[in-house]
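Subject: two folds for Thursday's group meeting

Dear M.,

Sorry for the delay on this. The cluster queue was jammed most of the week, so I only got both jobs back this morning. I'm pasting them in the order they finished. Each block is the input sequence followed by the predicted structure tokens. Could you check whether the formatting survives your parser before we put anything on slides? The first protein is the one we discussed after the seminar.
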Amino acid sequence: MKFEREVFGLLGFLLVLGALYFALIETGPAKFFTAPNAQKLFYLHVPSGLITYLAFLMVVGGSIIFLYNGSEYADRLAKSSTELGIVFGLMSLASGTFWMKAEWGGDIVSRFLTDMRLATTLAMWLLYIAYFVYRRQPETLQVKKNAAILGLSGMLMVPLSYLSSRYLRSHHPVIVGTEDQGSLDPSLRFGLYLGLFGFLFIFIFLFKFRMEIEKMERDIFKVKMEKI
């Protein structure tokens, strides 16, 4: 199992390097962009955002299962996925902010308040920050249940953030869609897929690692409680 985990991590690292090579070397300055070089953040910004959605959907799934049958594994899954979602979400927000500033200019705060993709994504990320902070206290059964209820908010926040660029006021392009919706140029998809699968494999590596750590921490806690 450990060897399998390391393979995921190494493969993900190599794929991300490939995405960086594609973005920085293989592709020239992007056309029709005010900041064509800043556009190269696209190959990291979009994959990290999609992995953030995946992580928070896993929180929703783990929370549902925990509330249904009290599964400790589901609770560990939700907690671990939250932490990783926060990390990848920070990467997406940070890269998006740099790209936004270079491409659109203007005040960053006003952009986050007026662009619904930015606003909903930030709200989703802050909500799971709250989940993370709440779980720092002693993990009683009631704390786990309350956290699971908070985690369920992703059922609304994830699709709201993802669909906001289609149906709400936003400057963000639609990456997956029909040609009249401004879907991604086929020539750029290879680099996007490299970044997406690279981050996915890194996420799997980190998730497996974090789940093992969480299990060890809980086992140690149980041993300590038995000695009291």
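Second protein, same layout:
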Amino acid sequence: MTVSGAVIWRASRTPAGVATLAIRETHPGVIRGAAWGPGAEWALDQLPALCGADDSPADFDASRHPLIADAHHRNPGLRLARTGLVFDALACAIFEQKITGMQAFSAWRSIVTWCGERAPGPTPRPMFAPPTIDGWRHVPSWMWHRAGLEPPQSKTVVRTARRGDAIVRAVLEAEDGEAVDRVLVSQPGIGPWTSAETRIRALGDCDAVSVGDYHLAHEVGYALAGARTDDDGMLQLLAAWAGQRQRVVRLIAASGVREPRRAPRLHPEGHRDR
């Protein structure tokens, strides 16, 4: 994805093939899109969900905490998006396991550029859609190393891709978030954090909470109770909004309230020259 002026460009591998989607807000609350490639029709059909049209906060009670009430009032248009692309969301979340976001995004960009497919249309710069599920299985080991992704993550992507089609079907057929979790965490190398991130990105799950995140519990604790906490404490604080916990997490992020930094940023460890 890239932003050029007022236009957001997104390259995806849809069930119908590769698509490039360009979207912009032409008037407040009015989104227009154009698409190119064999997956263009699918991408345009999915556009409302990508913009949060399937998400409805109508039964959300923001009054339970003053910070959440204020953030909800200041961000009336906040909606949870869904891409509908389960395996891409799952692979991306696996990339982000136990490393910094900067490392994960760099590795994702490298692998998608080297092993993906050039996106069609008048993109502002060359863009690439991710590999097919079968394509993920055949990324060579040296390429993972060159991209900067550690073996535990790269092996999990390859292993998961071997059952990728079945996993995607099971996730899309699951009745609720707990059922999705059962499907995903049954796969080696996938835990609650990766499952929750997949639910959030692919399905727009308004209740998923990324337990095990390096920062999230601290941020939620600081915002709602004035002090950092652990995962159990975070879940207790969010329990009042059962069914809408991810919405609360998003509102905390939108509020701008952050725990003061206690130490310098973690410096990424380089290993590609070893």
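Two things I noticed about the second structure. The chain is about 45% helix and 10% strand. The first strand starts at residue 2 and ends at 4.

Cheers,
T.
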